[in-house]
Specification:
With 102 residues, the protein is mainly α. It contains 5 helices and no strands. It has helices at 2-17, 28-49, 57-73, 78-81, 91-97.
Length: 102
């Protein structure tokens, strides 16, 4: 299970680092949040990798808090977390909106 935490936290940091704003407007608060999430995810991955699990609790708490605030902002609607505002819909959002599975 520890390896899963390391991989997921590392991938989270890499995905956030790879974000390209393109022509959209710079948002300082969003940039700060992204930076803090990168640091927290990187810290979780590195601390767990080196066996310092007890120190990974605080950065993990920050990541969980960010997810909680995102869910509160969407009134608990998980699908809205994956909605794409552009014309192209997220494959995950499409999957989550499916009413029937078979």
């Amino acid at each position: 299970m520890n390896l899963a935490h390391i991989i997921v936290a590392g991938l989270l940091a890499l995905v956030l680092l790879a974000f390209q704003r393109g022509s959209s407007q710079h948002r300082p608060w969003a940039s700060l949040l992204a930076y803090l999430l990168i640091v927290a995810a990187g810290a979780v991955a590195v601390l767990r990798l080196f066996g310092r699990h007890e120190l990974a609790d605080l950065p993990q708490l920050f990541i969980n808090l960010a997810l909680l605030l995102a869910l509160i902002a969407q009134r608990g609607n998980v699908v809205e977390l994956f909605r794409n505002s552009g014309p192209r819909q997220s494959r995950l959002a499409i999957l989550l909106r499916k009413e029937t599975w078979l």
